[in-house]
Specification:
The protein is mainly alpha-helical. The protein is about 80% helix and about 0% strand. The protein folds into 2 domains: about 200 residues, Growth Hormone, Chain: A (Up-down Bundle); about 220 residues, Up-down Bundle (Growth Hormone, Chain: A), CATH 1.20.1250.20. The chain contains 17 helices and no strands. It comes from Ensifer adhaerens (Sinorhizobium morelense).
Length: about 450
């Protein structure tokens, strides 16, 4: 009887989790345009030179990567009003909201400096907002299973925000000046909803208990992180799986247009994929509760490999089969989004038990860097491979050999890093029992 009551007491009220998750919606809605739509918009619609836009965005990406450890460290050291998680997050919102509005709704006549300034400020603001926000969620509960619920609410809102960002450009048109209308809609959405939802979360969601008994400088923090073996194992698996997911994500538009011969279905398939990911969130929570997080994630990756391999056999007109693959892999995407962040909270417990310092900001900064590295690596690998196999997206029709190579690269290349990630995670040392022991030591 006592155990049942204890389990219920550890569960946050759904309204608390909804209020915490709400800011994830506008944050996700600005992320996709920032990295996907802005390059084309500023070159084709605003008339800036393509090479200059590419150089500016490269500089912004470098700034983005450099800012992660700095904001992660600051997130752990903040002692201002509202607490180190809530207060630091709330302080970031004006910069993020204003920069998003200015970047997505530019005046008619601008120069390259406009893109550099507001793109750079939005990159800094997004990092500043995201790191204390995810650290806040990781610390809301010390319960193994409850952390998965927290991550599920947040990642569910993230997926809905992503769907909105995908849908708005289609709703307003995706070519020529109509792109401006889609970006303006996103600008208004972020400028209004981010301050509103951020303030609601600040007021109604509690500040986590800081379990730190010591504080360290940036370099000392990095030393302790490098000695946290479960963390190194988890982030290596996360990096491998992220790289595996980024390969088909990079090639998705080419595969649907070139291999399936259905360019007009790119948008609907993308929406179907992310919509099914939303539906897969509760499945991930239930699987983690039944089999533990690492086993549920490993099983989902294994099933994804078997399903995704089938796409390598598809050709012109196989739309129903590809739609079924989008449904299945979309459902399983939820496992990739929900379970690793929940496990990240558990490996932070391992560090806190050893060092006496709870540094969730630093850990999620490393997480963000791993995400960016996996995406950059996928682009750096796949495009040279496309050239090697003779696939040219500018051509109306590629050769059969080039299309076959595209299928192999899209469907089967991701399997190797996914299998490596499974190998790392199958015997992961922090399960429910081990995590409860770690909490007892802090």
């Amino acid at each position: 009887m006592w155990k049942v009551s204890s389990r219920r007491a550890s569960r946050s009220h759904p309204s608390t989790l909804i209020l915490y998750a709400l800011p994830a919606f506008p944050l996700a809605a600005l992320a996709l345009p920032l990295f996907v739509i802005v390059p084309t918009f500023y070159s084709e619609v605003m008339g800036l030179p393509v090479a200059a836009v590419g150089g500016a965005l490269f500089a912004i990406r470098l700034l983005d990567a450099a800012s992660d450890p700095i904001f992660g460290w600051l997130a752990d050291r903040w002692n201002g009003v509202g607490g180190r998680r809530r207060g630091f997050f709330l302080a970031s919102i004006p910069l993020t909201a204003v920069a998003a509005f200015m970047l997505f709704w530019p005046p008619q006549t601008i120069g390259l400096g406009y893109l550099l300034i507001w793109g750079g400020l939005l990159s800094l603001g997004f990092t500043w907002s995201s790191l204390p926000y995810t650290a806040w969620g990781a610390e809301l509960s010390t319960d193994y299973a409850e952390r998965t619920r927290v991550a599920a609410f947040r990642e569910g809102a993230t997926l809905i925000g992503t769907l909105s960002a995908i849908s708005l450009p289609f709703a307003f048109g995706t070519a020529g000046a109509n792109n401006a209308d889609g970006l303006k809609a996103v600008a208004v959405l972020v400028a209004v909803l981010l301050p509103l939802t951020g303030l609601m979360a600040f007021v109604f969601v509690p500040e986590p208990v800081n379990r730190s008994t010591r504080e360290f400088g940036l370099m000392q923090s990095l030393v302790f992180m490098s000695k946290n073996r479960p963390f190194l194992r988890l982030i290596a698996a996360f990096l491998l799986n992220g790289f595996a997911n980024a390969i088909p994500a990079t090639l998705f538009l080419y595969f649907v247009s070139g291999r399936l011969g259905a360019a007009e279905w790119r948008g609907p398939f993308l929406l179907l994929y992310f919509a099914c990911a939303v539906l897969g969130v509760p499945l991930a929570v239930k699987a983690a509760r039944r089999w533990s997080k690492h086993k549920a994630w490993s099983g989902a990756m294994l099933v994804t490999c078997s399903i995704f391999a089938a796409s390598g056999f598809l050709g012109d007109g196989d739309l129903v089969a590809f739609g079924a693959i989008c449904v299945c892999t979309g459902l399983l995407l939820a496992f990739d989004l929900v379970l690793p962040p929940s496990m990240q909270a558990d490996v932070i417990d391992n560090d806190t038990a050893v060092s006496g310092s709870q540094r969730s900001g630093m850990y999620f900064a490393a997480w963000a860097l791993a995400t960016k590295l996996s995406l950059a690596t996928a682009v750096g690998v796949t495009f040279p491979m496309l050239s090697l196999i003779g696939f040219d997206p500018a051509q109306d029709r590629s050769s059969p050999d080039a299309l076959k190579g595209l299928s192999l690269l899209y469907a089967w290349a991701p399997i190797v890093p996914k299998l490596a990630a499974i190998g790392l995670m199958w015997g992961f040392p922090i399960d429910r029992v081990a995590q409860r022991e770690l909490i007892g030591r802090t």
